[in-house]
From TrEMBL:
Organism phylogeny: Bacteria, Bacillati, Actinomycetota, Actinomycetes, Micrococcales
Keywords: DNA-binding
PANTHER family attached to this UniProt entry: HTH-TYPE TRANSCRIPTIONAL DUAL REGULATOR CECR, HTH-TYPE TRANSCRIPTIONAL REGULATOR RUTR
Residues within the DNA-binding region(s): 37-56
Gene3D superfamilies linked to this entry: Homeodomain-like, Tetracycline Repressor, domain 2
Alphabetical list of Pfam families matching this protein: TetR_C_7, TetR_N
InterPro entries in UniProt: Homeodomain-like_sf, HTH-type_TetR-like_transc_reg, HTH_TetR, Tet_transcr_reg_TetR-rel_C_sf, TetR_C_Proteobacteria
Superkingdom per UniProt: Bacteria
Source organism of the structure: Microbacterium invictum
Domain HTH tetR-type per the UniProt entry, residue ranges: 14-74
Record PROSITE patterns: HTH_TETR_2
Protein's name according to its UniProt entry: TetR/AcrR family transcriptional regulator
Statement: the UniProt record of this protein carries the keyword DNA-binding: yes
Keyword Transmembrane helix annotated: no
Amino acid sequence: MTANVSEYHRRVAAANRGSILAAASDLFLQDGYDRTSLARVAEAAGVSKATLFKQFPTKAALFEATVLAAGDSSPDELPQPPAGDLERGLVVLGLAYAEILGRPRIEALLRTIIAEAPRFPELRERTFDFGTLPVLSSLRAFLVAETSAGRASAAYPDTAAPQFLGMIATVVFWPRLVHGGSLTDDEIRRVVEEAAKTMVARYGR
């Protein structure tokens, strides 16, 4: 009975979290960080303020979770990199990352960070731990597996994985955020493939 009750509470908590993040995303994008209150988010999500505060004690913590949720993908949704082919596996995961960067809400929420952070120290202090995103976790695991099998030499996967994703974001995402416009699918693939070749030149064996 206790296990069933615990599972029920976990499902309720997960459902509440999803509702809160969806409502917060809408409000942050509609009204900005400044004019979005936790009370309004709770009302829009259909939960009590106590329920919201239990999961997100501050607005900055809620905003961080909203940004990370916008870039999240279920591990089941991510393509699996082929074992034994470092370059091809990097391309597979790199394209998945480029897809995340192309999501409209990711761009809009990061624009909000850039615009609002100078006025709100709590936003500047957030770490925005993108390492929790499944695509980065999958990339790190792939590099560890290839290194363990002797097909790569990434002794520091926590450094190598962000390096690869950084090469992609520098061309695919940040220029679009600052200057507007976007790359074609073929151009994005070329960026990812060149980044993968650079990684193979450095870490391949």
